[in-house]
Fold these 3 entries.
Entry 1:
Amino acid sequence: MTRRGTQVARLAAVGAAAGVLVAGLALPAVGGAGFGFVAAADGVNLEPADLVEPPPAEVTIMRDARGKEIARFYEEYRQVVGFDEIADVMKTAIVSIEDYRFYEHGAIDVEGTLRALAANLRAGKVSQGGSSITQQYVKQVLLNSAGSDEERSAAVEASYARKLSELRYAMGVEKKYTKDQILEKYLNIAYFGAGAYGVEAAAERFFGVKASELTLPQAATLAGAVQDPNATDPNLGRAQRERLRARRDVVLGRMAELGRITAAEAAKAQATALGYKGTKLPGGCESSKYPYFCLYVRHELLSDPAFGPTPEARLATLNRGGLTIRTTIDPAAQAAADRAIKKWVRPSDHAVAAEALIQPGTGAIRAMAASRRYGRGADRNEISYNVVADAAHGGGTGFQAGSTFKTFTLLAALKQGMKVDDGLKAGAGYRAPGYAAFRNCAGENVGDPTHTVTNDEGSPGWKTLRTGTWDSVNTFFMELEQRVGLCESVTMAESLGIRRADGKKLQEYETFTLGINEMDPVTVANAYAAIGARGRYCAPMAITRVTDGNGKTTRYRPKCRQVLDPAVADAASAVLSGVFTKGTMSGVGGIGRDAAGKTGTTDDYAAAWFAGFTPDLAGAVSVGDPRGSQRHKLVGVRLGGRYHGAVQGASVPGPIWRETMAAALRRVAPTPFTPMDQARFGGCSEFCRPGGGDPADQERRDRETPGTRDQSDPEDAPGR
């Protein structure tokens, strides 16, 4: 007789002894009309069935560039471990209390099952368990793979139809795996309470140890918890902890009864305190050390079809897939940004400082920092969105970028063949000479001759690409943009990855070069990084590789393209370097190596920026009031304990950038800029100042002429 036949025969015999009124196997079949009977053994299909076993939900771990964990994501907090990574005492405890004959019987523990069946028949319902560990594993798999409430209800339904199906699946599992493998799978899928799924998570949550380190009383506690994890959840209060302790003692008593431990060992373990630690479950960006970068990565994954065809599928992959995500963030650079921001802007200040650091030539995001911690925004010390990034990565609408956009007009002029000492005469005020003076990229006239652009103080006179940039002269850049073309400035910016923070189309008006578009630090820093990489633009990159739950690794490479003639980028770097020595940052100073950048302050001091780069690292800092920068200007404010009559690009963002970069690059060998091609960009051409002579000398004499006013933008005045 086959093993299955023997089991059926034994089942029939015990069934008859229990009062079953038919010859052969009789099992109640629950249907719509109530109880019916299946009168023959052949009527019950006890053939093994193949159980579909989707991997149980596992924790996804995010790591920094050095491999250190920075965040976790999960729907069920679980870490799957191997059989050898589980303490033997844990295996003994769970088998002793849940299925002490586990290693002796097959898929069905006939004696235990028949005891339960007899009791259930007398009761007229399923009132007693009797499931083997294998059957319990099957039940957990069905429950975890359920995609709807109906499927979840069916997985735990108290019916004989469900029980028979469970038995068939259990037979298939026993045919497929060894006993040790089944026990390993069960311990990794079981829920222990307190939000811990699987024995590794439970050991950490309950006792702050690994599953391999569990002691006898700890193992007995966890073994006792699986019977009714909600009723014995120690995180819910004293009553639940008392029930858990009582259940632990039952397990210890059973282990002693079976001879797995001595009576003395059981008594000693029963005398110990429960020892529940309630170790906090790590997870989510809110609890990450790098919350803004974490948010950025999370949104990258949720928008990538490689992780699922729909947003819902991608979220499931993130929360259940057990991924290991290696990222680009550099702890040293992040610490440098955090320290600099903390020095200049406090969490309690109304305005918020935000900074992003990006590696030229790769687009790798090295740091994302802000003066407020990320949270639900319950108080002024928190902010509920990613203030460092754009809306596509959890950010908001950003802040107007101000004079940092003048760099794009400078690049357009150099691309068109202007030399660094070419210039034009800038007035105290600028008005478009006609409606057709500026055309957007759709060919539409956008010039407004009724609007005057001014500098609050300054002298009319001749300005060159160098000196106009160093002093950040608004009227000069309006004249320059008129000459090179509005669309050319816009196209240049777009080629460097410039997009509005809110995802809308760039505003293409004549004041584009003055930074009227709202931006985020990541986007601006990345545009400047492309100049530092000699015109090689790389999309912002946050992830370097992802390893899935099966150990398959996908590597991510920089996505780059050459968007600028390297010589044009070199010339722009040469001009922008002077911002530190002769321009708006001269009062702040450089960082002891080749560096270039541009200050920026918006109209009426609504926001302030600094963006700059070296060949090794680029960064952008914004300061603005998230309550509404146009309503809450940076005038008469206190930041970091210091009073500011008006916050300018060089007064707060510039020092933050300088201190960040000096610290972040301290251990990085300096890379010099490639010298400007003097033959191509040095001196001046047809745009030389009338009368000849050195343009810088001419401008110095102009500034010294009585009765003239300094033309430079007051927001960007040197040292301010």
Entry 2:
Amino acid sequence: MQQELLGTSGPYDTLRPAGGAALGADAVLAGLDPEQRAVATALHGPVCVLAGAGTGKTRAITHRIAYGVRSGVYQPQQVLAVTFTARAAGEMRGRLRQLGAEGVQARTFHAAALRQLQYFWPRAIGGEVPRLLERKVQLVAEAAGRSGLRVQRTELRDLTGEIEWAKVTQIVPDDYPAAVVKTGREAPRDPAEIARVYATYEQAKRDRGVIDFEDVLLLTAAILEDRPEIAERVRAQYRHLTVDEYQDVSPLQQRLLDQWTAGGASLCVVGDASQTIYSFTGATPDYLLNFRNRHPEATVVKLVRDYRSTPQVVHLANGLLAQAGGQAARHRLELVSQREAGPEPVYVEYPDEPTEAEATAHAVEKLLAQGVRASEIAVLFRTNGQSEVYEQALADLGISYQLKGAERFFERPEVRDAVMLLRGAARAGADPLTADAPDLAGQVRAVLASRGFTPVPPAGSGTVRERWESLAALVRLAEEFEAARRGAGEPCDLAAYVTELDARAAAQHAPAVEGVTLASLHAAKGLEWDAVFLAGLSEGTLPIIYAKTDEQIEEERRLLYVGVTRARVHLTLSWALARSPGGRASRKPTRFLDGLRPGSGAPGGRSRGGRGGVEYGAERPAARRSRGPVKCRVCDRTLTDAVERKLRRCEDCPSSMDEALYERLRDWRARQAKKQGAPAYVVFTDATLMAIAEDVPTSTGELARIAGVGAMKLDKYGAAVLSLCAGEVPEDESEGDQQGEITGGDSGESDEPA
């Protein structure tokens, strides 16, 4: 019943790969490189896998789980793999199914916690679980109003993000202002106001009897902390845990993970500190970087063989990290490409952003003509506000595209609102807002000023900045439209501009089956393409202008590293000297390319990072009995049958058993059983005695490594067994007693199957 309620399924002996045939344990290891194989065979934690970009980390950890199941070390219903997105969890489940490991749970942190919360809430709290609030923006808006704040619709996402950050870093409303100061966080508005909205939001949830996604983690952790009997049930259910993207865990997620593993569960974590790009959401690489400090006995495996990118792309990626600083940089991995050589990365400087976008679109067109599929091409940029010019450039060439990680430009709320205002001003004709404007661009600025647009970008980050970028793009578009119309001698007014906007919006809504991907660098994490264009790589954009501290600058560098490592073969990096045509060429290419792009001087930083390999914990007990997969000592096949595992050989492989010793052991066991008034198998099973007689131990350590000889039996019977193995009479038996028992008795043949 517990298996059903906690979401497990399927007994071990029903596991089958997709084709239906049984999959042997050793077959799971086929095709893995040495480091991936080390991950797959390190079945008992703690294990830390430091996996560089493109090194096959998902392959390694899914094969590890499948190997554990197929070798009989894991029961699938006792395995839980957690990751950060439903897409990643689904991919993991699919791979495990193909490897014959059905029944393993692969979920996001929130999904796993919610399942436990729903099951245990009635007995821990009573009643039904509060309704889950799918989207908190509306309730945040209500909380802001009740707090006496006037908040624009586009600011709500920033307020919501701040509340989420506070909750995952376990900061209560009263402590939020101090936390902002302590962490150097740049709040989107006055911290005291945000704290007030945060407190009101929490009260509004209580009033309505609802919880949000962060509450799911908080409440589950609290129940496990406060109710030991519930915690024990969960820990008994999941004995083997794997955490993917461990560099992105938050303090709240780590708190829950600590509860899951407190009962001694085997833990395997996988991550890459060089891909930490979500610290603004509360994620921290500290748990990954300090894993060896918390678990001195841990096995650490480094994956550095890059199967995704060409040597040319990998060389640039390594060069970026070689110049990095901070703790994450000290643990960087130096990738080694496993692919054939490809073209060198292309570095291009343009006079302005429209020219950069048009040239990028033509480069995409050229790749398409060469046979590269549109879905294998991506244009990546720092902020969503940069997308519009690339959307238009691709549309002008009839190239379909898809915008990932954000709404299409003309579907964004601020853009829809702006177009509606502009349409209203065009219909009104003599509008007071536009009366003093000298030209079309001035009229657009005047209209958008009523929605908070200013000529100078805001200092903050997040939605406020992206909203400004969207409105600024409309102003720039007005400037270009006006210049083109006047050059052609055509009318140029607000009405004509709105008509142009409508036409562009309609063109972008065409279906895109094979579309080029347009995405922010954050949205590109976890994806890859044959060809990648990294656009807008200028100072002030990357690193972003509001990145002030050394830590913030280093995260911006890691963001570029993530972008570079998305490319398999073709990589183009570009920047513009000015925003608009004819503008002052005051921009500089990003500092992160200094020493790497041609003509930028000698590269800085160290040239070596971490290498691949396996490191075993310094405090791992030398005599600790291995509980991993058991190999046949004759043919080296992985053993799955219980008796074969005890004997450490296949049933059909030749036996090396000492028959005389085996008989002495059986006689001794019969005497011990008679003394205790218990069945013979209580002392040792036949299979254990056969294992002892086949692999005769000469020391306590060797005896302890034989399956069936636990700590208690080793203490109770170890000396006697070793004496028998040495051909001696155990000290606790006299020769007369031994002879009498031999001649008078039953040898206890009713042994229990192993």
Entry 3:
Amino acid sequence: MYAAKPLFDYPKYWAECFAPAPFLPMSREEMERLGWDSCDIVIVTGDAYVDHPSFGMAIIGRLLEAQGFRVGIISQPDWRSKDDFMRLGKPNLFFGIAAGNMDSMINRYTADRKIRSDDAYTPGGLAGKRPDRATLVYSQRCKEAWNEVPVVLGGIEASLRRIAHYDYWQDKVRRSILMDATADLLLFGNAERAVVEVAHRLAAGERIESLTDIRGSAFVRRDTPEGWFEIDSTRIDRPGKIDKIVNPYVNTQDLEACALERARGEPDDPQAAQPVELLPHPKLSRERTVVRLPSFEKLRNDPVLYAHASRVLHQETNPGNARALVQRHDSLDVWLNPPPIPLTTEEMDYVFGLPYARVPHPTYGGERIPAYEMIRFSVNIMRGCFGGCTFCSITEHEGRIIQNRSEESILREIEEIRDRVPGFTGVISDLGGPTANMYRLACKSRRIEAACRKPSCVWPGICDNLNTDHSALIHLYRSARDLPGVKKILIASGLRYDLAVESPEYVRELVTHHVGGYLKIAPEHTEQGPLSKMMKPGIGSYDRFKKLFDKYSKEAGKEQYLIPYFIAAHPGTSDEDMMNLALWLKRNDFRADQVQAFYPSPMATATAMYHSGRDPLHKVTYKSDAVTIVKSERQRRLHKAFLRWHDPQNWPLLREALKEMGRSDLIGNGKQQLIPAHQPQSDGYHSARRKNSTPTAGKKSGKPLLTQHTGLPPPGQDGNPWDKRERAKAAAEARRKAGQGKPAKGGKPGKRPPTPR
């Protein structure tokens, strides 16, 4: 059904005669040692070059090398001039541009638009090694270096900016990145299939302007070509005249001939054979149909229309039925072909089986690269996610069809890590992907899968057509544990717990063998308002999973903990929702050391909600119900403060807010109250954030308080600034300041002020 030419079926380019390089060259000296006089393709990336399949440019580079091309890498170039972009010489075919594994703006700025102090993809973790909007800058510099060399954009930054998009950092709608970058072609999603086709067709002598039929690509053209049906979606639908549906089985030419005969008085011959011709029609010719989105000029001035465009865009993401999209930018059209066909298991094995060195390039001299340290002992077993969470862009980038590797390929990679990667101690840090437990899960019917237009397979509930059998994943875990030299297999990828509870045997396997003391999961919220805008399951699914988790942990004789993560200030979240979440956290003895506020990333559905105040999950009109949006700095701080209800630094803000909300009953020292009425002494208080630890709950509850930093109960109560002794001390100080302290020796107590009511 997803017919596509396999990656390994292309005839190799002539440069296959060169053996695979130990590392893709980053200098002319390395090229000379390999015997190269030039590169066919030069990849420019904002990340350090780590030759590992978790780094996108390493995958693309090695894949193109396997196709017979000579590929060089320019990593984190000095963007202030074109000189650094010329270090490998003029590429014969094209420049490939990517900002890196992360969007360059998200990489540099926090959700509060503050500059980050580090960069995990840079040697030494140093910040400032890539420019803002790196894809734009790199592309323009490559054009300055050699204007005649085609520039092809890729990576997640280009993928999520392929169309007019809301930019959180400038608080406005920006044009497609393809327009601003002056590039020739943009490849979105996991672009292995597209980039291989581009390379071979350019090598065969085709011009870059002629490559307009590649799935997963975007380019600029002036007009819709002949032979295409265009569906106008430039306006929000309004009730009005409904055109009669065209019968595709009627030959309009014959009808015209019959009408002419009747006009001449010639009788119809009922016995005559009438030819039946299937005329083209948009509903039957999706591969020749394009949907016209509202123009950039309209979107930038109309947030509600932007929400409508976002809804249309997200409805065209299933590779089985997606149509092309087109959007006007001034006098030009940005044309988006349908998404790429997912890789088969054989192709996934091919991609991950390429000769990666699995370590950073030697030019870094062994300097620590934090992102590599995190993943060097991990294995990616699949791609894609059918969860469709609105705040996440995985579905828009990798797609919702799960692309799986074979068990044999995964086990070979574990053995390769064991035998080749320096510092391996026998512990695999992760077997996962975007979601830990979607391996080999798919629709029960390929026909239904190809026709489905739902944004999620698990919201508002798990689809009846979804296969939730975890047996293949259980078998993989067991096979991996049995490999010689492997002591432990941990699961660090995010777990979809509403799927896990459908397979108690999987939960037992996970909890018994693959949890290293704590397991991170992400319910994101407890209240239905924000959860419905996130497309996340209700907190009841979390409760069911926790029961299984605790049960199997006890059976295994292990003390293990769940560490839930939550989002503050997400669209659809009210102050009352955050207050209720804070009360849930307190009831469950949980204190968050790290708090994440909603980050409006480009192209995400929740970002459209944030910008427009409308919900694109439903049909958008100008009269649609408004969505609660948290934009002001004070309200964002308040929502984060509710998540860190235990931090005394947040108590003044919370007291003020609770009084404004009419919930002063939650202020006090009672068990059912959220925060104390009095503030501790500043010189006696040390922030839990600074200490990276959180005290235990105390003797009364008998339960440990868990932390996100370690996931385990902290040892002892010495770090608790608000234990009984400190509370008494703070209360005495408050009484002293109010004139209610103990009288001086020989004196009398002063008159107490009236108790406030």
